[in-house]
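SAMPLE LOG
Freezer: B-3
Tube label: C17
Construct: single chain, 750 aa
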Amino acid sequence: MSNEVLIETNSHQTPITKEFKDSMTSEAYSDLVDFINTVPFVKALISPDRPRAKDLPKDKHGKLIVDFERPHILEDISYFTETRDNFKKHGRYTSARFSRDPRSEYRKFWDEEERRSLYGMVRESDGEWIPGYLYFYWNYGRIDLTVPVPGAERNPDGTVRTDREEHFPDIWEIDYFYYHYIDAGESAGKYGALLKCRGMGASFKSANMVIRNFFLIRKSKSYLFAYHDDYLYDDGIATKMMVNEGFMQKHTAFRKLKLKGTMDHLKSGYKNKRANNAEDGYLSEVMGVNTKNPNGARGKRGKLIVHEEAGSHRYLLDSWRIANKSLNDKGNVFGYQLAQGTGGDEQSDFRGLVSLYYRPRAYDVYAIPNVFDRNASHQMAGFFMGEYMNRPDSYNKNGVTDIIRNLKIIFEERILWQIELDDPEEIAKKKAEAAITPLEAITSMEHSPFPKEILKDRIAHITSNYAEHSAKLKTVKFERTGEQVSFYHSPNLIQITEYPYLGKQQSRAGITISKMPDTHGNGNIPNFRYIIGVDTIDDDGGEGSMFSFIVMDLWKDEIVAWYLGRELIAEDNYEQLLCVALFYNATINYEKNLKGLYSYFKNSHALGYLADEPSVLADKGYTKGGQLVGNKSKGTRATKQVNAHGRRSQAGWLRKQHEYYTDKVGAETVDDIEWLRECNMWENMGNYDKVSAGNMLFIYREELKNLTENTRFDKVTKADYLDDPFFGETKHGGLGLVEGIETTSNELNF
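STRUCTURE (predicted):
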């Protein structure tokens, strides 16, 4: 039957019936079903069991407790917008005659409006309530709304010709939850981080917030921070602020005299002639600050600081830390700062905003379960506004969204992009602008060679199956006695899986193993089967850039072990690397710009484990080549050209069909989620230790590929390669084929 319900939803959603399914391509429908089953926020929004305000627990004041994991249905929101509805009907907020008498209807009305705008409004019948910022936004906010041109009809594809006009904002349920996120954070002495798709009106909301403070909080200071002046002025947030200020001056009793009235500095008050023209009066302020130099944030002790277009702010974390010193005095928090940013910009530098969003507690950001990414609610994060919320004609008068209708449009659009667009980067950019998960929103488009869509899918797969994924890995440290190595596991060891890593536990990091060295039962490992790429360090101290390496089984072309961390003593990292080289009988290509690693291996009589400078680089004109001696003969000098070549090699391997696991691309065989995250976030100004290690690995892989092409398991037998003298040559005196490794399987058996 065409009206047979395939998936149960609540009454606010387009029913998912057989007819609905048949109206979509099979791929789009499959994507939709997968999405609603893996994104907890969406699953909760469409649930047939979605609660109502009366069903939720209340606090001691009778206000419902908002649950971001179980968002309730909004009802009778007009209760909270009677003030603006009256203005829309009559062109004024109140018909009461002007009076300064506190007992007058005029003063009572405006005193109540001030109270609601500062402290919020509660509906006692069911405990529903909205915070003060949201009350002020819904009843006094001014935004540019898209409205259909008179006589325009909507096309079959859903488009219609529109114009932009100044209006009150529409009622959106995502705004309801967003302002509750802000209020909860401010009440807890924490800050806020917002990732979003385009078109969510975040600049209008923030402009309205600073205007609320300007008109209603005496001597308050609010700041608008941005990396570029364009984000402040022209059509930026300060321009939107001035529109709100003009409306308030014209239509409310909150109007203020002004000492300054420019977009970069709005200040209320007057010159007191009786006090030698001293500034007097309300003295509230809003200031725009360019924080391209992060020191511009110094000393800004404000009621509210908004970091506008935070996804394009190269020094966001520096500005954030500096501002935090002014706002947080040893736990006594004075103000609130909010970072908001959008994906899809070629100039985006999302590292700072990603850190605030995905590592909220490290930066005093209010943390909620990450219900916005796929199967990630076990993690904590900031707030996200996705493309599936509040698209035109998709929500009712209470702001409740028909998510299913929107997702149908979104996934059908994406199928069309794949058909019509040849450029994967253009598709990725369009997805970032219309992001439906935070992971999509953080795509950087700065000419990265890495296949971001493939990487994001793999990251999402690992994250959503994290327990199963982690069970097949083991994090260890090694010990060496002469030529024999052993490893041990300790609960104190960690695997660094986040990028950027903001913790202080680098010295606790262990080496993660996914596959043991394959000895084929005879206790020997052929030379050059395993290779290692290393991004090294020189200095002691445990801070700064981290030591990293990746181990590859060249015959199966897969990653089998990796490390990212930093011991307090650099030589301790070198020793662990040497143990891994002995364990896998692996050859090491490393960045020879730093000399400490070479010296340690020389003193350990282990130079045979260091690769000679790859000739492939000289063949391509990246190095001079020729006869090299001493430390110049080993490793690879990491120049701009060499690094670019290494990244291209990594990217090519990640996106192409795997040679051994032919049903997968390279990225789908990788279990090192931190490396995947580095590749996904890479842009040319950052520090990416594992990508640097990958450069060394894939350059050396290219060097050895021809030599190992005929020794892959699907082409030769064990006897073939063990009889080949090439694989029996020693690397240095006494150490050739490693003996004494008891396991005969490449599966972990700890």
